[in-house]
Amino acid sequence: MPTPTDPRVPSYTPIGEVTIEKRSNNKDKPHQGKVLAAVQAHADDIPFFCAGLCAKLIDEGYTAYLIQTTNDEKCGPGTMGEAIAQNEREIEVLAREIGFKQVIHLGYRNHFLDEASPIELRARLVFLIRALKIDTITTFNPWGHWEENPDHTITGQAVEAARWMAGMGRDYPEQLACGMQPHSVKDLYYWAMRPEQPYNTVVDISDYLDKKVASMSANKAQGPAGAAGRRLKARLAAEGKRLPALDGEEEEADRQYIRLFGLQEYQRIGAPHGLQHAEPFYYIPPGGTFTGSMSGADIESYIAEHAEQLP
Ligand SMILES: [Zn+2]
Predict the structure, then answer these.
(1) Overall pTM > 0.70
(2) Per residue in 174-207, pLDDT tens?
(3) Ligand 1: distance of its center to the CA of 158 in Å?
């Protein structure tokens, strides 16, 4: 049994044969022309759960948008208004470090996303999927076990419904009347972030580690990473001590702290697959998870065998 002092050991659940996604060697950018959306509820979600994946997909050609559902008003120093403003500034830094083209704030209240109209949230996401022609989404697993934060569950469920409905021709006809087209999201990378949550894919993020570290460090207002390096350095200085690894500018101390203490989970996820650092995902490929569809080939072969000529 782990003791309270043990580092948290990821106990996510592998499903089937786990696929390993590595950096593409194709210099021609295999994902050129495709559009990615990373949908988070809070400023620290993308840095922890998918920053490496996003950096990789952008490097391979994706144009990417960062969509945030809440305003982070409960997580940061000062008043609610000051917390919102600081988080907004830091999300811009995160977006720049990873390479997102644009940040879109939906602005719902932090920790109270369940007071928002689910229909409105879904409609706004359908609008963005159609308008930006989003091909791939990474976000919370909508059915993830052990989730304590309602913002996470509701964001995941709203995205799941929106990505499905955006491709249909009769939902939100006013959008279509204004010139937009139905647009289907082709594939999904759902995050594994609580014990027992499933994954079927690990993404090698070793080449994108500096970007992931920078994104984790961007978030000073909340979370365990952000400004921890400079705080530890100040604490040690008050005790008359110094850690050489934390020498240098404050930002460098923050990033070095993350390299020293904030990446173990990604190492543990990668180790069984021979990777230095990896992020786990439940990947849903084009075609989705529905397995009950009827095969056109089966139908044609049945016709060939059984159809009779009309007189
Ligand atoms: Zn969160």
Answers:
(1) yes
(2) 999 999 999 999 999 999 999 889 999 999 999 9
(3) 15
Give the residue among 280, 217, 292, 287 at the shortest CA–CA distance from 251: 217
Domains by residue range for the chain, with CATH: 13-225+262-288 (3.40.50.10320)
Cα of 155 from ligand 1 centre, angstroms = 10
- Span from the CA of 311 to the centroid of ligand 1 (angstroms): 67
The answer to whether 189 and 278 have CB atoms below 8 angstroms apart is no
Least Cα distance to 202 among 269, 274, 288, 276 occurs for 269
Residues (pLDDT < 50) of the chain are 1-9
Distance, in Å, from the CA atom of 115 to the CA atom of 112, rounded to the nearest integer, reads 6
Residue 24 Cα to ligand 1 midpoint, Å, equals 30
* Ligand 1 geometric centre to CA of 2 (Å): 25
**Bridge partners (DSSP) listed for residue 52:** none
